[in-house]
Amino acid sequence: xxxxxxxxxxxxxxxxxxxxxxxxxxxxxxxxxxxxxxxxxxxxxxxxxxxxxxxxxxxxxxxxxxxxxxxxxxxxxxxxxxxxxxxxxxxxxxxxxxxxxxxxxxxxxxxxxxxxxxxxxxxxxxxxxxxxxxxxxxxxxxxxxxxxxxxxxxxxxxxxxxxxxxxxxxxxxxxxxxxxxxxxxx
Length: 186
Ligand SMILES: [Zn+2]
Description:
- By secondary structure, the chain is of the alpha+beta class.
- Helices cover about 40% and strands about 25% of the residues.
- The strands form 2 sheets. It has a 5-stranded mixed beta sheet with strand order 5-2-3-6-7.
- The model has no long low-confidence stretch (mean pLDDT about 95).
- The chain is elongated and about 60 Å long.
- A hairpin with a 5-residue loop joins strand 2 (about 65-75) and strand 3.
- Helix 1 crosses helix 2 (about 30-40) and helix 3 (about 100-110) crosses helix 4.
- The structure holds zinc ion.
- Zinc ion (ZN) binds near residues 78, 80, 145 and 147.
């Protein structure tokens, strides 16, 4: 990541919106933003499949679900955050499973990029399909977008819900229904 470039850009941005980049309160803002970007965009260029380095040998062949995975991402259209929860399930192939924290980690790697919620959802599903080769994957993402709530249509509290299903979750309505009943249970 080119921190100098980010600092120059933030200075120009402050000037561009009509504020004074030399004003005391914002004098160090370019550095702060550059340091923050290293963290919130750490998924750019990272390989999300690398999360699954060690698979565990296990004959489990029922749905494995991790729900309410919190994430923070950045809308690529407006550079404003969208924040929410992901629910990620897969149906193992009966030979291998992954550690549960890895599913949350895949969401994180994809979220820490310039994103769209739709792509975040399908990318998480496809990474798991490729890396783990399960019988199926289903991902549901619910999020609030600041570009909708602090500007434009201004509907605070409105959630966007997206889903992606692959493999057996796509083919079988009963498997999708099982997933949906598992995530709706409190
Ligand atoms: Zn947006």
